[in-house]
Specification:
Chain lengths: 172, 172
């Protein structure tokens, strides 16, 4: 994807779908994800006025995840199902499945909140963007072995955070 | 393989990037060491749980002035799209373009051919008129003068070059 020579707005446009995808993955609501995209867009423009990020995708992933975690934290205690005006957005045939996904989303977001920026970026890039370790290393400017270490540590932290959930699901 | 080596390969194995040559030794240690197996299984379950989190169905990006507008397609809209879409639409798109191109080419060639026939007929008629005028005037009117005269009578439809060719053919 060639973004050299483009104005900042156009360069952001190349990554809009991905930014939306990262935000939606953690928030599960279309309108919240859109809000995050707009905010990230504003931050992107502000950043580009001083110096454009060397690795735009890595920068955008980090900022988007941080912002999505903030939104999730602010939303804590709100209804799980998105109600916008008179339109109830239930995206699953089974409401139970919707609630289950929402709980899982919440648990994963809180687990990601425990990670460092780099660990979070590595884990999301590997799990959701399905990138190879070499690609992640190139994008984040890290050594291959460092990326693998970050991935393992991140998975362990998330596992510890999700432990109570599994204990609840499989009572001994 | 000892536990330390196993640990160093665990990220590759979890990320589906283990080299084919490393599989036998890795699997052997996995079967033999309970501690490593438990660790590996728990991290694999964590990765699978994270992966199970649904992402956005589909998002389209369009631009409205200086704003970026993202639209998510709901399940209902996706079903509607699928029911309205003909199965062969995607495959026949290049074929459709080719068909249109061939149609345009035929229309253009046909139109041009028809125009050429009309022009040639006009040219022959004009040439005949000039030759007859030459005969009647018994050589008093010059050939060039007749052509110019004919050309000024029908400036749009007569073609000077074609007149000359047709005339020379008739005179011979």
């Amino acid at each position: 994807m060639s973004t050299i020579g483009k104005p900042p707005t156009d360069r952001f446009e190349d990554y809009t779908s991905e930014v939306y995808g990262w935000a939606f993955r953690l928030l599960g609501r279309h309108h919240d994800a859109l809000d995050v995209v707009q905010e990230v867009f504003l931050r992107w423009n502000t950043q580009c006025r001083s110096a454009a990020p060397d690795r735009p995708r890595g920068w955008l992933r980090r900022v988007t995840l941080n912002r999505a975690i903030d939104v999730r934290r602010q939303r804590h205690g709100q209804a799980a199902i998105d109600v916008t005006g008179d339109e109830v957005q239930i995206r699953y045939e089974d409401v139970a499945a919707c609630l289950d996904h929402e709980t899982l989303r919440n648990d994963i977001t809180l687990a990601l909140d425990q990670l460092s920026d780099v660990q979070r970026s590595v884990l999301v890039a590997k799990t959701y963007d399905e990138m190879t370790f070499a690609q992640i290393a190139g994008e984040l400017g890290l050594a291959l072995s460092t990326v693998k270490t970050h991935y393992l540590r991140a998975l362990r932290t998330v596992h510890d955070r999700l432990q109570p959930r599994w204990a609840k699901e499989t009572p001994s | 393989m000892n536990c330390e080596t196993f640990e160093s390969l665990m990220a590759d194995a979890l990320g589906d990037e283990l080299a084919p040559g490393q599989h036998p030794a890795f699997d052997e240690h996995l079967a033999a060491c309970t501690t490593c197996r438990q660790e590996f299984e728990s991290l694999r379950a964590t990765a699978a749980t994270m992966h199970s989190l649904p992402g956005p169905q589909r998002v389209t990006v369009r631009r409205e002035g200086s704003r970026l507008v993202l639209e998510e397609r709901s399940d209902h809209q996706l079903r509607l799209d699928a029911s309205h879409q003909k199965p062969s639409t995607a495959a026949s798109s290049p074929l459709k373009i080719l068909r249109y191109a061939a149609g345009l080419l035929i229309a253009f060639t046909g139109g041009y051919g028809f125009h050429a026939v009309i022009m040639a007929r006009d040219a022959i008629r004009t040439a005949e008129t000039i030759v007859q005028a030459d005969k009647q005037d018994d050589g008093e009117t010059s050939l060039q003068g007749s052509i110019v005269q004919a050309h000024s009578r029908k400036p749009k439809r007569s073609d000077l070059a074609k007149c000359l060719i047709a005339m020379s053919a008739r005179k011979r």
